[in-house]
Each structure stands twice: as C-alpha cells, then as structure tokens.
Design brief:
Length: 266
C-alpha cells in the first residue's frame, strides 16, 4: 500500500510538472516578437511561470484593470449592492464610446469599462476610504495623489498609481484564495462581472486595461489583461502586459485567451 501511495504521489507530481512545462512552452511560442510580459501563478501551489521577467517587476499605470479593486472597495463602502442595480446615470455628455452614453448597471459598466461611471464611484468612496483600502491590500506604490477620480489613469504631466505585472497577479491570487479582507458578498459580485468566457475545460475571469502615450511618450501604448482561470487542467492567476503603437487591452486579452485555449485550460 505504501509503495502504491508513493507511486500515486510521484505520478501526480509528474502530471503537474508536465502541465506547467506545456503551458510555459505555449506562452513562449505566442510571445515571440511581442514586447511585453506574462505572469501565471498557480493558485494551489507556489509554482509560477513568468515570461519577460525583466518587465514583470516594473511598475506602470494599471489603467482600467483598477476597476477590479474599485468595484470591491465600492461594495465594501456600501456604494454597490448588486451587479444588476442601477450604477451609472448618464450625464448627457456624448463621449467617444457609444456604450458610455446611456444608463448602465454595474455589470454593464464593468464590461464596457466605463471610465466616468468608475470616476463617480471613486468620488463616492472618498479620499480617506480609498487610501485606507489601497494601503490595506498593498496596491503597487499606493500613490493616489494625482486625483481621486483619475489616479489609476495615464494623464499628461500627472503620475498615476503604479503597479507591476507580478504584483497584479499576486493580488489576484490572494483575492481568489481568500487572503484579502473583502467580504463574500464583494467577491461574489465581482466574480459575476469578471466572468468573460466558460467552456467545458474551464472558466475565464478577467479585466482589460488600455493606456496611451504612457509617461508622456507618443505612441507608447499599453494593453493589460488581468484575472484568473479555473480549469479542469489547472487554476492560475495571471497578468499580461504588452506594449506597442496600436496595442490595447483587447490585444492582451486575445493573447491570453489563445494561450489558454492552446493549453487546454479553456
């Protein structure tokens, strides 16, 4: 019996290592020629895969990926009760994105990445409460001095809060593993609005982020995709950050999705 147990443990370890190696190979293949980094953290162990380790620890603006945390903080401060509640009342100002020019519930505002909706939320949360939560979860450099309703966004001649891809993935891992002080209600609402795609292999949760002219450099654009995958073949938190002249968060999401599908995680 003891021998069978040892064999079973070794077989489990072998399968786990094979899956990790397969994922790493697929990441390397898909990242060839792309400027950026991807971090995958195993949710049930200390195993990690990092492509572009020199970039993974460099902090930059989170752009709309901060909506993950803005949402949670808003729920904790009683500004949000449900993903279906009225969340954003359009102010009548016509903006470049048609989906922002109408009333939205929380789920819609998150999916459409509606900046004015989340600016309103930040103002309702307030400077003091926002600072407390940013410090509590140890979010990046914790600098919100550029303004309560813009500190996560790249703006000319203003420094946003900054966070690295490895910090983004680590925070998601802590969140999913119940290591942060958010209520079950907050986590359940967030889970519903972060859901992007479900297949017979797994379920993908994530948030994109796009930024232009980062650090006031023309055409220095970035695309984020941050989230987690719960799959029959593994569970990971991840953060992808890519850059280029025409790059957006959609490009980062498509890249991660392709990697997950090829790895049979999605």
């Amino acid at each position: 019996m003891k021998k069978l147990f040892i064999i079973a443990v070794l077989l489990t370890l072998f399968i786990s290592c094979t899956k990790i190696n397969n994922l790493e190979n697929i990441i390397n293949k898909n990242m060839t020629g792309i400027e950026g980094t991807i971090v995958f953290l195993d949710l049930s162990s200390e195993k990690k895969i990092i492509y572009g380790s020199n970039l993974a620890n460099i902090r930059t603006t989170p752009c709309s990926t901060f909506k993950i945390w803005n949402t949670l903080i808003g729920i904790e401060n009683n500004q949000i009760n449900s993903e279906n509640d009225s969340f954003y009342i359009w102010d009548g100002i016509t903006r470049a994105y048609p989906d922002w020019n109408k009333n939205l519930n929380l789920h819609e505002a998150f999916q459409f990445s509606c900046v004015p909706a989340y600016q309103n939320l930040a103002n309702k949360i307030g400077q003091s409460n926002m600072k407390i939560w940013i410090a509590k979860i140890n979010y990046g450099d914790k600098d919100i001095s550029s303004g309560l309703d813009i500190f996560w966004l790249p703006r000319p001649n203003k420094k946003s809060i900054k966070i690295s891809p490895i910090e983004q993935a680590s925070l998601i891992k802590k969140l999913v593993n119940n290591q942060l002080n958010f209520s079950d209600k907050s986590k359940q609402i967030l889970k519903k609005i972060m859901l992007f795609k479900a297949t017979e292999n797994g379920t993908l949760f994530g948030k994109t982020g796009s930024g232009q002219n980062i650090d006031n450099i023309p055409d220095n654009n970035i695309g984020w995709y941050v989230g987690y995958i719960i799959s029959n073949n593994g569970k990971y938190a991840f953060a992808c950050l890519i850059s280029g002249k025409d790059v957006t968060g959609k490009n980062a999401r498509e890249l991660v999705e392709k990697i997950l599908i090829e790895s049979n995680l999605l």
